[in-house]
Fold these 4 entries.
Entry 1:
Amino acid sequence: MLYRLLGEANASPRLMIGVARGRGTVAGHAWVLVDGRPVGDSDDVIQKYEVMTGFEADGRITSVAS
């Protein structure tokens, strides 16, 4: 929802999707970036996740560097 609202406000958000693997578990998380900074999440939280994919404000898949 935040991604869509920020897109409508022309904030150029990026929706990122990642996973974190633990001992016998996998956790997923999605977060929104504006100007390369997370909105509503701290850097500490998102650093736990390996980015799998992301979407630009116009819906195109964003390039994610490994």
Entry 2:
Amino acid sequence: MSATTTNKSSRRRPDFPSPQWWIRDREGNVVVAQPPNAAILVWLATVVIGWTGLVDGATATTVRDAGRGALAVWALDELLRGASPVRRLMGAVVLVYVLVRLFG
């Protein structure tokens, strides 16, 4: 058995329902947290703006709605393209939360 084969087999994704299966991508890398993408950065910016109270009235509503939209985009992206099952699950949970807040 060559070193290449050993490396690939040790990095392969565990079989379902192993706990490791939930946090590893198809190449076997642990993928739970990643650097934030643009949608999450927009959401974080709107949260910070809301906390500081820099805006009020209609502008505050617009900022809040933009943040919710950005969070929905992030959640949908994770649900459809998440690198690991836990990331797809996280996207589904956040998307349900955003939709409940929107229509609830």
Entry 3:
Amino acid sequence: MPHPSPSRRIPRLLDRLRFTLRNRHYSQRTEQAYLTWVKRYLSFHQGCEVETLAETEANAFLTDLAVVRKVSASTQNQALSALLFFHKHVLGRPLGELGEVVRARRPTRLPVVLSRDEVRAVLDQLTGQNTLIASLLYGSGLRLSECLNLRVQDLDPTRNEITVRDGKGSKDRLTMYPERLKEPLRRHLARVKATHQQDLKEGFGRVVMPSALDRKYPNAAAEWRWQWVFPQQRRWRDRRTGQEGRHHVDESIVQRAFKAAVERSGITKRASPHTLRHSFATHLLESGSDIRTVQELLGHKDVKTTMIYTHVLNRGPSGVISPMDRMRH
């Protein structure tokens, strides 16, 4: 039986890739990135039979990214991960030794770090919930996406813990709940809860559930504990079901507000919301916190990643206080 034409097979392969990623609970961001890279890979070898794609073709594509496209090392590594997944789980032919792939150069750059006074200056220029979001990034060492994906049940002020679920590498971790943010967050959640209760009265109030839990627990999406800590102001409509709900705040809104705050503060450093995470780690280490503890709080797989923030190695166990709580009133 003749094989379907490449133009027909590619959409089917991409559908299989999407299904396999979701079945293995990969994040939406990873799904989109892998789909993009596989599309580019298949386009790069346009005209070739899919059955012929192997190590040589993968090598050629990755080398082109480095030599011609001049992508960064992290971008090339992401493309490699996408190809490895595609060949193993979709084509059923795992890639073997790729040979001499020309690797993109990884620039040696130190992260931008704000001083405590600079952090305070930027926070003073933010308003509303953007202030609270930025304070959590600095006070708990969260990535922006991790902060915006927080659900009400992830905050535990009693145990002074914040649970980061499905963080980078699809891992959960615990980080600190700054004492100084407990009361502002309590007031914020009271307002969010009032909005949620009003949504319920109007027949809405449901959120997107992780890992298709809405099918297993149909009513859970309307429960308070599953609501976003930072929901959007406006409800969105699901085109498939017609239901309205609230998603969390979009990252771009926070990023624009932060950029404007940095400019108004007069700081000339190239700072972004992620800079607050770098500052969190650096200030903890400067205060004498154990680098292994900081590694766990940040969710780094390898302590070498954490060591970029300091030349100090392990200073021994010590109690950890959030840098947010060390700031002067």
Entry 4:
Amino acid sequence: MFGGPVVEIVVVLLFVFVTMSAIVSSAQELIFQAFGWRTRNLRRTIERMLTDNVYGKEIGRRVYRHPLLNGAGGARKQLTYIEPDTFAIAVATAVQPDYSTGDPLLELPASVEAMRDGPLKHRLSLIIPQAKEGENHREAIRTALTTWFDTSIRKSQETYKADAKALAYVIAAAATVTLNVSPIEIVQRLMNDKALRTSVGSVMPQIAPLLSNTASAGSATEAVARLGGDPAVANVLAVLQCSESQSSMPIGWPWMAGALDAIGKKGRSLSSSAMATEASACKQAADKVTTAGIKELVQSKSFEREFGPNFKTDPPLMILLGWLITVLAAAQGAPFWFNLIQKVVKR
């Protein structure tokens, strides 16, 4: 036994949480990219800074039309970030009169003075510092604009992070209920099924390096890629799914077996053991295992599929509590768990 039953159960739960958080982080990133969430957030921030009832959104549009923010041929970039110095130059240029040809930053006080009276003119007048003797006024103006931009971006990021966190909880709840993952059910199964716990203990030496390797990734995206591509994952999942205990980890709903069976009968390609019929699940799992000793544990042909908690047989309160634990863990995102693993591994 590797570390005893308690350590085995804890590591299995950590493996489950890492997997669920990876699903949440990946889905969240896909949504961000599909809806241009970061791009929209940046544009809304700049519009709030530069919009008033006199110019409307025109100054903000001029900022985005600046050559430093446009691609070749004037094609608009899907910007997710702007350098503060670039923003300062773009704003100074956006409010500069057509007849002015000097340095936009140096002429910004005169440019603002020439603007029509309104909230934006008043706002910029307060931001632009007064010229002082012996001071580099251009640098003072640049610093004032970049500070204004940095402060506005930090405030918008607080809202962005709150929205992202709310989205993470929504995704985590959807994934948890869809996959029916309850750590309470998993702990009970491992405590009551000695054979399954013994099988889990056989892959413990592989789980630890796997989590360590994942935690050493430079970013959450890289860590997710490592988690999915590591051959040790096949060994771990195979034992968790199909071992000599004649049962599997309690995850999923009974209807999933029928749905996957129906898909198999239609002749669709089944590329993973998770989409196999019950009769071939163990065989496909064994085929993916690279370690001979573990391979023997998952070659059982008599296999009873175990599912997650069921409202017909389990107390609803315990089911909801188990789901809540999974949602809270998964919603923390992959970076949280990878950082936690790094701290544990370094000790």
